[in-house]
Amino acid sequence: MYKIKNKSSYKKRFKLISNGKVKRKKSNKLHNLKKKNKVRKKKLSKNKIINLKIIK
């Protein structure tokens, strides 16, 4: 039987916080920043909180 590996990419992208919620960064902030306006770039730099109870 083969070894089951942990998903280390998830460990790098998501952080667990209290009350069973997960914190992640928003996408689309790495390139093509000239096309995006200042307000949009500021909103993309903030973190997003995911409630896992909704997903289940």
The tally of beta strands, per DSSP, is 3
How much beta, percentage-wise? 25-35%
Helix content: 25-40%
Q: Helix and strand string, N-terminal first?
A: HEEHEH
Low-confidence stretches: none
Count of runs of 4 or more consecutive helical residues? 3
How does this structure look, described?
- By secondary structure, this protein is α+β, with helices and mostly antiparallel strands.
- It has a domain at 13-51.
- The chain has 3 helices and 3 strands, in the order αββαβα.
- The chain has helices spanning 8-13, 38-44, 52-55; strands at residues 14-17, 21-25, 47-51.
- The chain has a 3-stranded antiparallel beta sheet with strand order 1-2-3.
- It is flat.
- The protein starts with 7 loop residues before the first helix and ends with a helix.
- The mean pLDDT is 86.
Itemize the secondary structure elements and their pairings.
Layout: H1 8-13, E1 14-17, E2 21-25, H2 38-44, E3 47-51, H3 52-55
Antiparallel strand pairs: 1-2, 2-3
Brief rundown of the structure:
With 56 residues, the protein is an alpha+beta fold.
Short key terms for the protein model shown above:
alpha+beta; 30% helix; 3 helices; flat; single chain; 56 residues
